[in-house]
Amino acid sequence: MWRHRPIIISSIVILSLVSLDARYAAWPRGHIRATPKIAPSKCDRSKFKLILDVGHTAEAPGARSARNGSEFEFNLRLAKRIEDKLKSEGFAQTNLLLTEGPARPSLFKRATAINSSKADLVLSIHHDSVPDSFLEEWEFEGWKSHFSDRFSGYSLFVSHDNPKFWTGLRFARLLGGRMKAQGLQYAHQYAQPVMGRYRRKLLDKKVGVYRYDQLIVLARTRVPAVLFEAGSIINRDEELAMESTERQDMIGAAVVGAVKEFCASR
Ligand SMILES: [Zn+2]
């Protein structure tokens, strides 16, 4: 969610149920008994409207990675991979939201597009960095570059200003749980004093859900919305992991699992 201008100036974008085919189980002596029926899932995957908001724009690409990649490119690549996975699982109404232009106007364009979509859920895809004061210098392929290996991990944000806060929080918890089940850790620093004005209230300390009321894509939308920092690209090891198809598939599987559970539980 960080936006770094090259080298010097930076600013922050404030921003199945299991079908019981064993419905009949044999008694010990061969008698047959009917086991209770499980209510069918209310989730119609073909009708579930999900927006994958690709964080930032080509013109205002967000954070710069340790190896000088743009956050926007990371966001777009991961969002497309998640979209493919969801569609292959029957979530046909999954759409990427891409906006253009400078950062702040693009945020309001996003909120307007989301509100007119009547989506069931919005997941805003980002990759994390650190405040400038944590940056260290190194040289990558002959270019003066910046990194910070101090923090790593994913994080999830919800806004109390969103009227569907509780529903968004429910999805965020499901996604955090799935990320954790994939063996991924969340970024703990947002709850720590060292983050200063970027410190956030940790709502779920098990799976890494934070409260961040001011984020426009969460606060100005009227559908359940969650912002997902999928991992850090300013951390040199994690940047390489985030570039790998293996990590992207793990994250994709976590999102698909969480969406299935969320849709089925509505
Ligand atoms: Zn971002």
Structure write-up:
With 266 residues, the protein is α/β, with parallel strands linked by helices. It has a single domain (2-15, 41-264), classed as Aminopeptidase, CATH 3.40.630.40. 31% of the residues lie in helices and 22% in strands. The chain is built from six helices and 13 strands. It has a seven-stranded mixed β-sheet, sandwiched between helices. A hairpin with a 4-residue loop joins strand 11 and strand 12 (209-211). Helix 1 crosses helix 6 and helix 3 (165-181) crosses helix 6 (245-264). Residues 5-32 have low confidence and may be disordered. Zinc ion binds next to loops.
What shape does the CA trace take? Answer: globular
Termini gap? 30 Å
Overall strand count: 13
Total DSSP helices: 6
Q: Count structural domains.
A: 1
Unreliable sequence segments: 5-32
Radius of gyration: 20 Å
SS strand fraction: 15-25%
Which cofactors or ions or other ligands sit in this model? zinc ion
Helix content: 25-40%
